[in-house]
Fold these 4 entries.
Entry 1:
Amino acid sequence: MAPLTLSASVSGIKPTCHGHADENCHATTLESAVCFIALYLIALATGGIKPCVSSYGADQFDDADPVEKEHKSSFFNWFYFSINIGALIGSSLLVWIQDNVGWGWGFGI
């Protein structure tokens, strides 16, 4: 996320926009490259962690112990609840911040 935040914030790698409400924006090859490399890094990192993170968390509990088995169930409930809350915030609050405050702030948060 850091390179993506920088590509939306730093004037040397941020596309320049002219006109009313930034209607006319043009990115140079460097600006496009930084943005796409950042997006590819995010995709690579997400693809590496998402399938593993829930099983890593579940591996911390002992199925032979009834108390830990119950805690494991609670872990999954909280884990998926947190993922859904994150998706809700990401698709509502952060979109509002990007539209009204700036893309750099949205990516940075």
Entry 2:
Amino acid sequence: MRPSAVRLLNILVPVKRTVDYAVKIRVNPDQKGIDLNVKHSMNPFDEIAVEEAVRLRERLKDEVKSIKVVTIGPPKSAETLRTALAMGADAGIHVEVPESAPAPEPLGVAKALRAIIEREKEKGGIDLVIMGKQAIDDDAGQTGQILAGLMDWAQATFASKIVVDVAKKEANVTREVDGGLEEVRCRLPLVVTTDLRLNEPRYASLPNIMKAKKKPIEKLTPSDLNVDLTPRLETLKVTEPPKRVGGGKVESVDELIAKLKEAGITPVKA
């Protein structure tokens, strides 16, 4: 029997709808951003976060009470939530913004997540936030750290392994750092950001996709959370990198040196 005094784990997983990783990015005609009329999918690092939440429940069994996913985005972002629900999450929260609205910045997203966590206190609270270390569209890699700072929670970034002890209200997280691996022990509540080698996300089965259609999604607006998602930065211009010039062949070292000199490059003697 599980002691009644042991608190069950409530997990929150933020996910983002991004341009699919396999799409070749192109700048839009007004040079204010990229062409978004292409295939979108869940941010790959967020898929890893959803998978890890589901695996934690499989490992901890009845010690995980709920897995809730949240996204901030236009109406089409509901598809991303349904994907997460099909992978095994229980319910979703959609903070809906207009299709034409600019993408919120990490600080705005973190403030919205803080407001959601505060709302969830009435339903048992959030003990663990698992999220991707970065989104592949802006590559900011800031939201998890900002959220932990706003909440004054422990944080463990770039996780490649997560072990949670619900009874002790702590987690051991193995982090990927420049010199190798680092293991940190953190008290719950905790914000964890996921790295690529944490796991390999599962494919949602057809039965689970059908079940996901019946799982609840709560719709909110930024005003419901008393959060302003207006960007603080303005994009002046977006341009593609210069096209690479093809190389050429030379017949001898002397010809190579001559070509380098023509290009304004002075060869250095060994």
Entry 3:
Amino acid sequence: MTSFSVNAYLTAHMRTVPDWPAPGVQFRDITPLLQNPQVFRVMIDAFVHRYMAPELRPDVVAGLDARGFILGAVVAYELNIGFVPIRKKGKLPFTTVEETYELEYGSATVELHTDAVKPGDRVLLIDDLIATGGTMMAGKKLLEKLGATVVEGAAIVDLPELGGSDKLRASGLSLFTLVDFAGH
């Protein structure tokens, strides 16, 4: 029997777009993972099986705008727990808390409804990709402002050369990713 590598399988189905959105950037496109139902199931199952473990099982999944919504909602559904969106500023209709973070050129702000989580809730924070770590760090801070504990940050792809995963781990956040593009 041959062993199956989720990392290799997903990597083989991803698309790299050179020089997008700027010259020299190798854009890691996850949309092919979503388009193929078998690949999508392998990816979601990898997350779901991990978070079924009692020590990692969350009370709720929080997804980061916007591709974290796709993953997070399906993972939450499969785990039979709730899902909360962390949105870009101005998109949520109820009372919110907000967190601003720095981008390469400027800043951005994300928001969360004040009743999205309760103090003591164990939260899985999920997104498609970890680059500089700013969005996930802002999401972690928002959840903690409301008294929740982020049990882990999860993403399909880690781009470690951009330093985000190191920064997130240094903040005390445990991370889980399916594909690592170190040295690629």
Entry 4:
Amino acid sequence: MSESPLTKPEIEFPEGPAPTELQIVDIVEGEGSEALASSTVEVHYLGVEYDTGEEFDSSWSRGETINFPLRSLIQGWQVGIPGMKPGGRRKLIVPPAQAYGNAGFHPLAGKTLIFVIDLVSVS
């Protein structure tokens, strides 16, 4: 497990209606090789629901990063992570169409999600 120099983020409760398009906001710019759509990434992340602010998932809470190919993730991550560099922190606000769909059996279907992602490494 790699250690991120950053600590678990706190997400401020958003104001106004949820955006209908993917929002990408760099909080900290990293250094080194950029993540590509074809990359495997190691990240720390926090995910909350836009409407309630409730945390639904966090690698920070499990105490370890996760490592996976970008192409296996939700579309919002596939579009929102490329261009990040190791050591970077980025906030993604992901509408349902780019998360778990507008309807369906997934508990997060139909929800806009906010993620703060720390890119630890790229391969």
